[in-house]
Write a structure and sequence with these properties.
- 35% of the residues lie in helices and 21% in strands.
- α3 crosses α7.
- The chain has ten helices and 13 strands.
- Among the domains are: 9-83, Beta Barrel (OB fold (Dihydrolipoamide Acetyltransferase, E2P)); 89-246, 3-Layer(aba) Sandwich (Rossmann fold), CATH 3.40.50.300.
- The longest helix has 50 residues, at 302-351.
- Mean pLDDT is 86; it is low at 219-223 and 226-230.
- It is of the alpha/beta class and 352 residues long.
- The protein has helices at 18-23, 25-29, 123-136, 154-163, 180-186, 201-209, 259-265, 267-273, 290-297, 302-351; strands at 33-41, 44-49, 52-57, 69-73, 79-83, 89-93, 101-106, 110-116, 139-145, 168-171, 190-194, 234-237, 243-246.
- Pfam families: RsgA_GTPase.
Length: 352
Amino acid sequence: MHSSPSPYGGLSAYGWDDSLELSFAAHRAAGHEPVRVIAVDRGRCDVAAAAGPLRAVTGRGLDPCTGDWAALTPGAEPRLAALLPRRTAIVRASAARDSHGQVLAANVDTVVVAVSLTTALDAGRLERLLALAWESGARPVVALTKADGTEDVSDVLAGAAAAAPGVDVVATSAVSGEGLPELTALLTGTVVLLGPSGAGKSTLGNALLGADRLATGAVRERDDKGRHTTVRRELVPLPGGGVLIDTPGLRGVGLHDAAEGLDQVFPEMERLAADCRFADCAHETEPDCAVLAAVESGELPPRRLASYRKLLRENAWAAARTDARLAAEQADRWKTLKRHQRAMYRFRDRQR
């Protein structure tokens, strides 16, 4: 029995479905066609269309990201006319550390956080990446890579699980194939790989793709860190359905408005804080603090509380900068409006 071809052509392999088609009705009536952004590069982007891949010009005022759905104006020089609303987005603080966030990938369903088993587990960095993933609206999964190069993964597996409550943690090897079936079973829709350089993201991605589609490189023996062999975010269809986005290694991951993500990474904090004497307890030196009591009793590791405090402070700082920027933008709008009003009054007075 043969399955009927998709009415959306090759675009169905990238996730286009009936609900997206329904939301696209006004754009289609205007003569546009749907595309998905594969990669972005200096005012142009590679996109997947129903008839195949295209190179398009980025429309004025648009800031597309890998994974975006967009409306394309076809022609001799295809151009993006609009971006569709993002269902999810992975956003980190910008490299300039200003109040604007940087979107790493859009419309993501599963975030695979890659952690190399050949280096000591950095639980704080893992928690940071998980906060980013949870905040996006996608579901995180932790992939411990390079299991073939490690004799005993049990300690790292336990440490990663402790830093990732409610998240599936899978030890994998792209060389032996260990853990790949279990990891593949957890992946749905659009999958993005996150992690530092040298974590084995691209090698893992090639194993999931079943082909060497993504560039890989060796790591330095002295610190097990790699060069940025992935230089841009790129979206590739997976053989079993769904698509994969590989990302360059993340040296720094600043949080940007990730309060809900932090709640997901540290669920025990809210549970313990409910028993504190003061509703606004900062868990520092307050009397009858249930969080501090949990640390003293050994229920809550001190490292876990220290990491929570650090990320909470960083997120509050980022939120304050965003609020300050929004307030400044509002003030500028008022100033502009007042200038226009004064100019109008002066013109009116001259006409009398």
